[in-house]
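Q: Here's a chain of 277 amino acids. Please give me its 3D structure as C-alpha cells.
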Amino acid sequence: MKEQVIVIIGAGGIGLAIARRQGFGKTVLLADHNEKTLYAAAKALEEASYRVVTQSVDVSSRSSVKSLSNMAQSLGAVVNVVNTAGLSPNMAPVERVLAVDLYGAAVVFEEFERVIAPGGAALIISSMAGHMLPALPPEQDQALALTPADELLALPCLQLDAVPNSMVGYMTAKRANILRVQAAAITWGARGARINSISPGIVATPLAQHELSSPIGDGYRAMIAASPAGRMATPEEIAIAAGYLLGSDASFVTGSDLLIDGGVIAAMRAGKLASPA
C-alpha cells in the first residue's frame, strides 16, 4: 500500500494546526516561501513524531508549484492538499497580492489536479474578504472562474485602473478563490476528488497580530467588536472545519465555501459595520 501524503502549503498558524489534525500517520509535505517559518513548523511536528518532508515554494511561480506537486507524487498517494498561502493587503502592493492570492491559488489548483489521488480532497484557506465585495457582473465572475491561470492577470478587471489598491485586490482575489473552487470541482470530480474552500474571519495567529498592530488595526478591532461572536477564531477552530471538509464525512461536499467569520459578514449585511469595499 502506497504511503498517504498530505500537502500543506503555508506553514503559519492555520497551516500548522491543520497539519497537526490531519497529518499523523501520513507523510506531511510542508511547504512555505519563508524558510524560517517552514523549518520552525517542521521541527514542531517532528518533535511530536510526525513524518515531515519540507520544500520551499513560491506559489506565484508555476515551476515552483509544479516542483512541489511532483515531489508530493513521488512520496506516495496525495490524499489531501491544503493551500493556506497568502498575503494580506497590509503586506504587499496590489500586483504582488494578486500574484500570490489569485494567480498562485489558481496555479496550485491546476498543478495538484494532475497528482491528487482518487478519493482525495483539497482545500484553500481563502478569506471572509471574498464575501465583502458587491456582486460582480456575470461575465466577470465567469472570467475569474474559468480563465486559465497563466492568462488571469491579463484580465481587464484585474488591471490597476480597476483594482486601485491592495485591499480591493485582496477582496477580488478571495472572491476569485471561491469562484475557481466551484469551477475546479468539475475537473477534480473527473479524477474522483473533491475541492472546497474555507473563508475565515480574523484568526489568532502572528499574521493577525501583525495586522492588529498596523495602521489598519482599528478596522480589524471594529470587525471583532461588531461581530456576534465578539472575538477572533483560534487556528484549531479552522482546523476542525478543515478536517471535516477533507474527510469522508464530507464526501458529498465539493465546490463549496465555508464562511467561518464569527458573523462579521452578517454584521456588514445588517448595516452594523462598513465594508472596506
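Q: Can you summarize the key feature?
A: The radius of gyration is 18 Å.
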